[in-house]
Structure prediction request, 425 residues.
Amino acid sequence: MTIEVRVPQLPESVADATLVSWHKKPGEAVARDENLVDLETDKVVLEVPAPMAGILTEIRLGNGTTVTSGQVLALIDDAGTAATGVPGASAPAILSGSNGAATSAQEAVKAETGAAGKLSPAAKRVVEENKVNPKSVSGSGRDGRVSKSDVVNYLSAKDGATPAPAVPEPAAATGAPAAASAVAAATSSARAARAEQHVPMTRLRARIAERMVQAQATQALLTSFNEVDLKAVNDLRARYKDLFDKQHGVKLGFMSFFTKACVEALKKFPAVNASVEGNDIVYHEYFDVGVAVSTDRGLIVPVLRDADQMSFAGIEKAIATFAGRARAGTITIEELTGGTFTITNGGTFGSLLSTPIVNSPQSAILGMHKIQDRPVVVDGQVVVRPMMYIALTYDHRIIDGREAVQFLVTVKQCLEDPARMVLSI
Prediction:
């Protein structure tokens, strides 16, 4: 029996997808629910599983093709039919190893698939482009998952281990042709080192670029700054981190404090939580806070729905789950859709100060930065405190400078005196 493998139903906000890479070839055996092909949308990579076990008899569309919901991608015939001679299917071949043991091609493919199954979608692409055996790359991710950076590091180390071609010693005056050849060889080698590689943008990277340019072109963006003394937050985390971890099964980080502080500030200044729709200002009476997460494929923003109703533990658990699934490529489009305000933490990469770009159609974004011990004046005394610069980039069309500055002051007050967030004052 032959079954068609079709593009799954794409969400309403996604018109089409790009076929990134096939993991099977015609004639190869597939298992039920085994990933056959990756489809890349503007936001996530979708995996298309095999609807049944059998032989992949035909691939209808190649890598790089733009596809829409319901398109036929391939045909699968069950294993029993394939054994009797399905057109396009090949019977399992017998491979003989050096030890004389025979192994079926199906088992070899299964072993290779097992190694490739630990690759992130971005890593798979680099592996295929550079013809790297995935078994030879050590993964740094959870459960040994191989990321794009792991493959790049492997290729860099491999290239570095290759000895450079020897350049002949300069010839004597009587060997001018040999000297000329040596110079030509050295020049050719130098030019090879200056090679360029043209790589098409992924759909996610292209979408990020489009959104960033759109925000700059359609919004009147301005950034205000402040600094926060995080001693009170550090003291709370030090006092309760073990109990918090034991009771909730998650570490008490900074993001829950900043999320709660932003929610309190958004309640006081609703324009920061609003968006522009035509000539209307849409004031959102809910607080869906996006938290920017960096992945191998680019920056994505999972959304904490109704963040005002979430506990500190709930926020930390949700962020940890989102981050893990985003980097594994299993996050859904619905989890990335919407959001009324965004928080991004460049401090994790060492950024001391920056001006983040608004995630359109939102009207504001808060940027966190690196925590540094700095001398500050407290009650007339110079003391050393853990300080962080915070930045609010906002759409000046609907948010006045006064509101932006007071928003940051409210965030600062909540973080320097966390009891305010408990008492909502």
